[in-house]
Amino acid sequence: MSERMRRVNEALREVLSESVADLKDPRIGFVTVTGIDTSADLRHATVYVSVLGSERKRRATLKGLESSRGILQGRVNDELRLKRTPQLVFEYDSTVERGVRLSKLIDELAPDERDTES
Fold this sequence. Notes:
The chain has helices at residues 3-22, 55-67, 69-79, 95-109, 113-117, and strands at residues 31-38, 44-51, 87-92. By secondary structure, the chain is of the alpha+beta class. Helix 1 crosses helix 3.
């Protein structure tokens, strides 16, 4: 990935992180924008989000984000000077969830440090 595309992705992530927090849609829960993957021609951008809550809450949040796509694209257009405003697509990022699960498994398998220090 070129330096330019890294800067574009980071700028998009910053604008969208702030904008998602301002949305009033009740379906949208606690969302963190974890990453952006923009196509080289700036026509499409995949927005990876982490959502706190159940599977049902995740689905509702993704639907809320999809319905707010026009508002979010408008914010991107207003705040960034890009040749094109990319079409946003939202996807759930399960890496945070997997990381927590792996951390719990490691904690379960690791011997308790208090027992070994005595």
